[in-house]
Structure formats: C-alpha cells, structure tokens
Specification:
- Chain A: This is Myotubularin phosphatase domain-containing protein.
- Chain A: It holds the Pfam family Myotub-related.
- Chain A: Belongs to the protein-tyrosine phosphatase family. Non-receptor class myotubularin subfamily.
- The complex is a heterodimer of chains A (567) and B (556).
- Chain A has 567 residues and is α+β, with helices and mostly antiparallel strands.
- Chain A contains 21 helices and 14 strands.
- Chain A is globular, with a radius of gyration of 26 Å.
- The two termini of chain A are 46 Å apart.
- By secondary structure, chain B is an alpha+beta fold.
- In chain B, helix 10 packs antiparallel against helix 11.
- Chain B starts with 7 loop residues before the first strand and ends with a helix.
- Classes of the chains: A alpha+beta (567), B alpha+beta (556).
- The interface between A and B is large, with 60 and 66 residues.
C-alpha cells in the first residue's frame, strides 16, 4: 500500500500547536506515512515535535467558516470559480494520544484541516502489521544485525543448572503447532515427554499446557502457568495433565493452584467448554480462587480514571468519588495482593504453585511477574527486569497487538483492548515507591515502557505472540527496544541511583493507604509532575557526585564506586 | 502521686496497633506521675514503651474477655495501644488512674512544669531567647517609613490576646488603633503579619468587625485606609474573610459580621469558605477512623476519605493562602485577613501565605519563627484547642494540625523546596500536644507571662534546633529554583493525599524498611567528608578507609 494515497495535504503553514507544559507555537505542520511533524518557525526558537501517528488514540475536529456572514454576497463568486478555499475559514484538530497527552492544532483552511484529520484517522490505525513504523525505523546508531532480544528460553535453561535434574527443555512447539501463543522452547518436568505434552495441550485452552516460569532457588519450589483445563460440562479429564502436575510436586506433599477467577466464574466456564481442576483428579493440589478483573472491565476502568484525571474540577468530593468509581486502584490492590499470595505460597509455605485464569495470557502473567519481583532479587535489576518482561510477556504470548490497539481516549468500539500491561507497570511502580532502594530501574523506565507498548519505533511489542513475530520477520526487520534501553546513555536515565541489592523478599503493603495514584503516568502532562522529576534528577546528581568523590579520594574504594557508576 | 491506684501490674499484654504489630508482647506495666511505661518480659530485648499522660486523648475499657480485661489507649499523635490486664480489679485501677492522669485540671500538673532537664537558670533563659521575633520583622525590613512598631498594646490593655509588640501602618495613630480595637471582636485590631519587601504589599490580620447590620466606626475605616496607604503602589486592599459567606452573614445578627463595602472605600471583600472548628473536629475524627480500619477495601477507604471531608478542608486552607500570596506577590495588593475571632482560620491562612511568599519560612528555623509569630504570639488558643487541661471539649479542634498538614502537602508537591523533612513536622505536631515544653502552653502571650512560664519551663525551639540534623531534607538546596521566590502550588483535588505518616503508622514496620531520605542524608554527609578529605589529599595516606555503604548503615 502507498501511504501517499492517504495524504491529500502533506504540509500546512501557519499552524498553531498547543501542547501541555509548553507555550503555544506557530509553525509548519507536516504529515508523513507514520509521523506528524510540527516545526516552529518563531524567531530565535527552533522547536520540533515529532509524533508517531500510531500514538494517536483519538482525534476530534471542529471547523468553522468565518466567511458565513460575508458568504452571502460572495456566494456566487465562489461557486463560479469552484475554488472552495475559504481564506477566512479554519479548523481545530484535538489530538488525544495513547500516552495521555492532548495536543491541539489550529489549522488555517477548512479543507486542509479536514484532509489532515482524515489522514491521521487512517494512518494512526493501520491494520496490516507489516506497514507499521518499526519496519521502517532505521536509526544510524544501530544495525539490524545487532543482537535481538536479551535472552531466550534455551539460554535461560542452560544457565539454570539447578533445573537440569528434574526439568527439561522441550521443543515440542518448534513450529508453533502445539500452542500457537507459546514460544518454540518451553521448560517442563523431565518425566513428561513430548507426546504427553501434545495431549495435555489439547486439554488446555489455546494449547497453553503447564510450563515452568519460575524456579525458587532457596527451596526448589516453582511457579507454573497455563490456561484453564477444558473439562467442559461433562467434566472430562486428562491423565497426562494430571501426571504432568503430579511430576511438578514430586516428593512434596502438595501444591497450590491459584485460579484468577471467582469460583462461580470458573464453574460457569464449564458451560463454554472450559473449567477447573477438580479435587478428585488433582488430589494433591489445593485450589485458591482469587477473582481478578480482566478484559473490557479493566479497559473501562482505565477510561474512567483518565477521564477523572482530565477533569479540571475544583471539587474534592467529586474527585475522590470519581477515583473510587473508576476502581483502578482496587485492581492495583487485587493484583498486588494476589501476587503476594502467590509469593507467600512459594517463599513462606514452601509449595509449588500453578497459576491460571481462563486464557492464561493476561492476569496469569501479571501475578507471576509481580511474584517474581517480590521474591527474586535478580529480576529487580534493570537487565533483570527487562529480561523478565521479555520472557513473561513477549515470549509468553501476551497479545500486545490486541490489548494495546487503543487506549483510554479512543472512540472506537472496544474489541480485545485491555490495559493489563499498564496495570503491571502501575503495580511495579507501587513496589518501586514502597521499596525505593530495592529496584534497579527508575520510574522513567516504567513510563517509557507504558508509551512503547502502545506505539513504538521498535519491534519488541509487535504482534500477539512469537509465531506472528516469526512470520513477520520482526527479528530480521526491526530493532529491539530492550537492547536500546540498555545502551549507556539510556542506562543512565533508566537506572535507579538509590539501588542497593537486597536478598530479602520485598512484601508490598496492599493497605489502601499504601497504594497511590501513579501521578507520573496519569498526571504526566500536568506541571507539578515536573517538580517531582526535578527531585529525581537531584537524587541522581547527588549519588553520582558521591560516587565520583569516593572514586577520587580513596583508591581502595574503587570497587564500590564502580558499583555506583553501574547503577 | 495521689491519682495512681496501682503503680505496677505484671503479666500485661500490650499491642501497639498503630505500628502494625500483630502479636501482643508480655511485660510489666508501670504508672508514673508523668508516663505509662511498659517493659517487655523478653530478657533479650526488654523493649520499653513510654506514653506521656498528656499525649493520651482517650482511655476506653472494653468488655471483659476470658483472658482478662482490656484498656484501649488512644493518643493525640494517633498511636493506639491495646492493654490486656489479667485481673479485672487491676484493670479498673489502671483505667481510673489513666482517666484522671490524662486529664490534668491545673497547669501545675503538666509535664513541662515538673520536667527539669539538666540545665541551669542561664541556659533556660538562653533557651527562651533563641526565638527572636523582632529579628524576623527586621529581616522583613521593618520598621521602615511605612510600618512602625506600636506600643499601644505593650501592657495588653488594648487587646488581651495580642502580643505586646505589633506593627501597624505609620499613619495609624493610637486613637485610631484604640477605636478600631473597640469595633473588632475581642479587640483584635488590624496588625501586620507579613511584609513583602519586593512589592511593598503586606498581609495583615484582625478579627471580624462588630458591624451588625448597619454599624460603622470611623477609626476602623481610617485604619483600613491607613493599611492601603502603607502600600504606595495600590489604590485598594483585599479584605479576605476566611469564613463561608453564609456564616459571616449569620454573624451580623449577633452584632458582628463583615465589612460593609459602602462604608469602607477601596476595599474588595473576598470570602474563602473555611469551615469552623466544630466541623474540623468531627472531620478529623472521621479521618482517624479511616486510618484505624482493620482491613478496608479500596472502596471503603476512598469512600471514608471522601466522607470525612478532611482533604476538602485542607484544600480550602491552601486555597486561602494561595489567594493571599498571589494578591501580594503578583498584584502587589495588601490583604487584611480575618475570620470570627481571628485566631484560628486567620492564623492558618496568614501562615500558609507566608510559607508560599517567603523561602525563609521553608527552612527549619524559618518555620519555627513563623509558628511563633502567627500562632504563639498572635494568641492562638493552644491550651484550649489541644486540650492541655480538662475543659470544654467543644473548644478542642485540630486547627494547627491543618496548617502543619498544608506544609506537608506542599512538601510533597515540591520535594526540593523545604529544608525540613516530614519528621520535623511530626515532631512539632507532637510537641504542640505533649506539654513537655512551655512554648505552646496557655492561650496567649499575657497568660504565659502571668504564669511566668519563661522561668518555670523550657522552650521547645532550641531543642528541635539541636536535633536539626535528623530533621533535614537532603534534597533541599537553598540556591535551587524550587526553593526560591514564591511557591505556586497546584490545588487541583488530585494533588492532595492522605498524610499517612501522621495518621497511620502501620506501614512503617514492613521490612526491609527503606528510606531514600536517610540514604541521601548519608550520601550527602559522606560527600562533604570526602570533599574535605580531597582538599587535604596530600595528608591522606594512600588506601584510606573506603566509604561504607550508606544504605546498610542507616536502615533499621
């Protein structure tokens, strides 16, 4: 497809751009296949705004014809010439971005305005993935031959020597035929062979059979994840599935299954072919039902919260009631407490746990990721966290393409959108706030990820699973976000200067007073967030200064100072 | 002491509910003349908990259970202790004693009049001279050719509740002052709170006029005229009535009210709508209840927060301060602030305005000076409001709590703008209630003078100053942009949150405890040391001791 057929007007002069945190500017607006470019031509300043069209969630246009009065007598002249360029007419386009920014463009010329609006509408939600910007993004600083991704399951497995006794790497899914949303390699109990896995896959929704996602070195317990069993109304069961799970607890007295649905939801799922693990077939497993919000309800919660934040009301009662009504913080609370429960089962009780909801691609990944952050210090460094996201979200098949197609402003009918990944980032931010020294990355990283998941120059969050990415050649034709975030300059900005390694688990408080609205994200475009950023900057400078001093004053302390610089 | 029935009870179980303690500790309970003391039996820790009697806000006995009888001790700093006594008779004694001890009837029973830190007379006198308000007025550039110090109230004859030293416009002659005082509730005539050198505009304060529906007073009108003239660049002043307009109107029926714009030329009246002390008292009780909920859902919590109205009141006070600060700094217009008696809402609005206008009040010493000036010296009724003595419960109200919280909310919005940290604010809050020092005793300067508190007690300010290292915000830099000039906070509702550090102590106990402030303080200290070392590097032997890791040292 040619992008140019969607661009009737590529350039408009004399456009006024209004955006948060900046004074309005007048300049030239330019639309390309993937970007909106605004350059300020005001004397002495040279400001450019480059906005990825994919970042645009919704646009609203209003045109007004200033000539309507005078139009009465010039009417004839206009229709004769056929040139409908009403020199006095203008239009305003309000652009609402997926990163919650709201921009406004005042465009002279009604027709130009409508053309621009139409181009944005079309180009901001292209259907075909191969037309998306990551396939065109060619920064001079990187080459397509650079390493793609941080790790693979093969590497993960080979590094975890302690796994090798009882666990094996299976490539039963090498052509994605057993489970389309799983990666090519997965870790399963050694005693379960590939034939069994194929049978188990048929018994689990979407073929997502139980696989290992976390091994707790302290006590050898594991977290497994899967999708719901397909018991259906006549309560089918599957011997291989039971054997696989039996092999997981091998030797230990019992395991827990954390089902992220309410008991009623789980029972109802039988009517549509799903179901739950019955006590009789899985006698050594204890099921815990913890209902978590998902899908549409979560998306609606986000929409309500963003709406509440955008309201310039001065009424405290109204704000608090809207905040409550959005339920977003309740979802944060539930996610963190369910993850806490999961970590408690593994770390404190010393039992292995299987996590699933229905599809096993959303709330399942949410709580398994949070539990790993709570328990495992190696996930809490910048690399560790990105590797965790790569493994537990990208490779594990969270459908980014569907979930992040639109954000809170969109008027489009909701389909598969759901801000599960955003909820994860919010929960991680809560951890970061409660344990300011325990996580190796900064709030800026979480904000960057929240933006990139919805619109990106990079290929990392493209597609819904590895199979789609392989088919599109994402690895060969796009650049990797995680690699880019680890380059020296980025690393400085995305690491936490206060970070100090601790072996201890970080148990979050889920008491309502301990959880807060993530201002950095939801109120990102309001001025006072700027003061908080200044404070972060100050912290960074103080620690860097201290590191430099330590380095230059005492040669013996070199090692420590290097630690500081690496943070 | 006569009120102590049982000085010692053994095998008592104590649960510090507010710190999130889950299991009660067993130990011995002692009642002294000044404290309730609990000593743990555990020979390894022998942890002691001390609660000052004057910090106890209520003692409640709950129905007896098989394990014994229970007393719940609620403190004015929002800590809650649950005490289980095996014998019902002992429990009854403890309860009766504590009820009496926590409600002293005379000032002489208070801790500050029996507490004798090991200092001599000279040191005590020195402790009182630490605070020098004249120096603060001097810092503002006063007296000058616009504002002068008046001796009219030097013997507290014009206004009993005002300080002896006051600043008024140069043209306000004693007859004008006396006449204006007669027309103002409790004689609280317009006097200067803060003078803004950059714009020459001033913040002044008074009480409501005794205008009723039609009353007027020439001297009072002349007084307001003098206020306006003391600001050469302006041709009007704002009169900020911090009450809701309805309340102000209702007061007219009682012969009080607000300024009639027909009688006063060149004033602009502005109502803010801060509620009265009774509303605030019940609002705070509601927010304390929210803090005490055992396992609230997010909905319970947010609903409770909304229902308490507390943040709405905090916002109203901050809005009042912001209005005044903007008038003074941006428009260069002087402001006269009053409420009813001019000692509660007026003190709140004026002191918030000073914090916003002048970076000095955002330092440790500056905040002390500000509280001393706008609250202590201007006759805020500390002993009545904070229940120092057993008295009328309707007089009690968390007025200064709200000011301190406004400062905290600001410090959350501007993390680098304040020299002090949250701990300092909490410490001030505690001392206002504790009666450990004489600073906040009594209801006005005259009362304190009559009680000779300067000879019999100590001042809290030098004590806090000595401890300033632990009250310092490591992010503060005097030269930074956030710290300079006028502070312009955003008061959109989403900028306010519940002050967990004050109302709820529970989360503090979640390990590993991590405080970036402590970490940074250590980083800062070490950096300074290292800088010094570097300066003398030639003298430092190679391979000196490496700096220890700051986080590890300060945690715990």
């Amino acid at each position: 497809m040619e992008f140019s057929e969607h661009i009737k007007t590529a350039n408009v002069e004399d456009v006024v751009l209004r955006q948060p945190l900046h004074p309005p500017g007048r300049g030239t607006l330019c639309i390309t296949g993937h970007h909106l470019l605004f350059s300020d031509r005001e004397e002495g300043s040279c400001r450019q705004v480059l906005l990825l069209l994919r970042n645009i969630d919704a646009i609203e246009k209003s045109v007004e014809n200033l000539l309507t009065c005078s139009g009465l007598f010039s009417n004839a002249g206009l229709s004769q010439s056929g040139v409908c360029r009403l020199s006095g007419s203008s239009g305003t386009i309000t652009i609402k971005c997926k990163d919650l920014r709201v921009l406004q463009l005042d465009i002279p010329g009604m027709e130009e305005c409508l053309n621009i609006a139409r181009s944005i509408e079309t180009l901001s939600c292209l259907d075909s993935m191969s037309e998306l910007y990551p396939f065109f993004y060619r920064p001079s600083s990187a080459s397509l031959r650079d390493q793609w991704g941080l790790s693979s399951l093969e590497r993960h497995y080979s590094q975890m020597k302690e796994l090798h006794d009882r666990w094996r790497l299976s490539t039963v899914n090498r052509d994605f035929s057993v489970c389309p949303s799983y990666p090519q390699a997965v870790i399963v109990p050694k005693s379960t062979d590939d034939d069994m896995l194929e049978k188990v896959a048929k018994f689990r929704q979407g073929g997502r059979f139980p696989v290992l996602c976390y091994y707790h070195k302290k006590n050898g317990m594991v977290i497994m994840r899967s999708s719901q069993p397909l018991t259906g109304a006549n309560r089918k069961h599957c011997r291989e599935d039971e054997q696989l799970l039996q092999a997981v607890i091998d030797g230990s007295d019992k395991g827990y299954i954390i089902d992220t649905r309410s008991s009623q939801q789980a029972l109802q799922a039988r009517m549509t072919g799903g179901g739950l693990e019955s006590k009789s077939c899985y006698s050594s497993w204890k099921r815990l039902q913890r209902q978590m919000e998902r899908g549409k309800a979560l998306q609606e919660s986000l929409i309500k919260l963003v709406e509440a934040c955008g309201e310039e009301s001065n009424n405290m009662d109204r704000w608090l009631s809207k905040l409550e009504n959005s339920k977003w913080l309740s979802h944060v609370q539930t996610a963190l407490s369910t993850a806490g429960l999961l970590a408690e089962c593994v770390e404190r009780d010393g039992h292995s746990v299987l996590v699933h909801g229905s599809e096993g691609t959303d709330s399942t990944l949410l709580i398994s990721t949070l539990a790993q952050l709570i328990m495992d210090p190696s996930c809490r460094t910048l690399e560790g966290f990105l590797t965790l996201l790569e493994r537990e979200w990208v490779q594990a098949g969270h459908p980014f393409q569907q979930r992040c197609a639109h954000s809170a402003h969109s008027h489009a009918r909701l389909q598969q959108e759901s801000p599960v990944f955003l909820l994860l980032l919010d929960c991680v931010w809560q951890l970061w706030r409660q344990f300011p020294l325990a996580l190796g990355f900064s709030e800026a990283l979480l904000l960057r990820l929240a933006t990139e998941a919805y619109a990106s120059d990079y290929g990392t969050f493209l597609g819904n699973n590895q199979q789609e990415r392989c088919a599109l050649g994402v690895k060969e034709n796009t650049h990797c976000l995680f690699q880019a975030l680890l380059r020296p300059r980025e690393r400085d900005c995305y690491s936490n200067p206060l970070y100090e390694h601790t072996e201890l688990a970080i148990w979050p408080s889920v008491y309502p007073q301990s959880l807060q609205l993530w201002r950095g994200f939801f109120l990102r475009w309001t001025p006072q967030t700027h003061h908080l950023e200044e404070a972060q900057e100050e912290i960074r400078n103080m620690v860097i200064e201290w590191g430099k001093l330590a380095l230059s004053s005492c040669p013996a302390s070199t090692r420590r100072s290097e630690d500081v610089q690496n943070m | 002491m006569e009120h102590i029935r049982t000085p010692k009870v053994e095998n008592v179980r104590l649960l510090d509910r507010s710190s999130g303690q889950r299991k009660a500790s067993i130990g011995t309970l002692y009642l002294s003349a000044t404290h309730t003391i609990f000593v743990e039996n555990n020979p390894e820790t022998r942890k002691e908990s001390w609660v000052l009697h004057s910090m106890v806000s209520s003692v409640e006995r709950t129905p007896t259970i098989p394990a014994g009888s229970q007393v719940i001790l609620r403190c004015k700093d929002f800590r809650v202790f649950q005490i289980l006594v095996p014998q019902e008779r002992d429990c009854l004694d403890v309860h009766t004693s504590l009820v009496r001890l926590s409600r002293p009837e005379k000032y002489s029973e208070l801790y500050c009049l029996s507490f004798n830190p090991n200092v001599n007379k000279e040191e005590r006198q020195e402790s009182w001279s630490f605070m020098d308000l004249t120096a603060d007025y001097k810092r503002m550039g006063l007296p000058n050719n616009l504002w002068v110090s008046t001796a009219a109230n030097s013997e507290y004859r014009v206004c009993e509740t005002y300080p002896s030293e006051l600043f008024v416009p140069k043209s306000a002659t004693p007859p004008i002052i006396v006449g204006s005082a007669r027309f103002r509730s409790r004689g609280r005539f317009p006097a200067l709170s803060y003078f803004h050198q950059d714009t020459l505009a001033a913040v002044c304060r008074c009480s409501q006029p005794l205008s009723g529906f039609s009353g007027r007073c020439q001297e009072d009108e002349a007084m307001l005229q003098a206020l306006m003239k003391a600001n050469p660049g302006s041709d009007y002043i704002y009169v900020v009535d911090t009450r809701p307009k309805l309340n102000a109107m209702a007061n007219r029926a009682a012969g009080k009210g607000y300024e009639n714009e027909d009688h006063y030329t060149n004033i602009k009246l502005h109502f803010i709508g801060i509620e009265n002390i009774h509303v605030m008292r019940s609002s705070q009780q509601k927010i304390i209840d929210v803090g005490e909920m055992r396992f609230p859902s997010m909905t319970d919590f947010l609903y409770g927060l909304e229902n308490s109205g507390w943040l709405k009141h905090i916002k109203a006070i901050l809005d009042a301060g912001l209005f005044i600060a903007r008038a003074v700094a941006d428009e260069g217009i002087s402001v006269l602030v009053h409420c009813s008696d001019g000692w509660d809402r007026t003190a709140q609005a004026c002191s918030v305005a000073s914090i916003l206008l002048d970076p000095y009040y955002r330092t440790i010493r500056g905040l002390m000076v500000l509280i001393e000036r706008d609250w202590v010296s201007f006759g805020h009724k500390f002993s009545h409001r904070y229940g120092h003595l057993d008295g009328d419960p309707k007089e009690v109200s968390p007025v200064i709590d709200q000011f301190v919280e406004c400062v905290w909310q600001l410090s959350e919005q501007f993390p680098c703008a304040f020299e002090f940290n949250e701990r300092f604010l909490v410490a001030i809050h505690t001392h206002i209630y504790s009666c450990q020092y004489g600073t906040f005793l009594g209801n006005c300067q005259k009362e304190r003078r009559d009680m000779r508190l300067g000879e019999r007690t100590h001042s809290v300010w030098p004590e806090l100053w000595k401890e300033r290292a632990q009250y310092t915000n490591p992010l503060y830099r005097a030269e930074q942009s956030q710290s300079q000039g006028v502070l312009r906070p955003n008061t959109t509702p989403y900028c306010f949150k519940m002050w967990k550090g004050l109302y709820n102590h529970a989360e503090k106990s979640t390990p590993p405890r991590q405080s970036p402030a402590d970490f940074l303080s250590t980083v800062r200290e070490e950096s300074q040391q290292l800088e010094e070392e570097l300066a003398n590097q030639q003298e430092v032997p190679p391979g000196g001791t490496p700096p220890p890791s700051p986080g590890l040292q300060t945690r715990g």
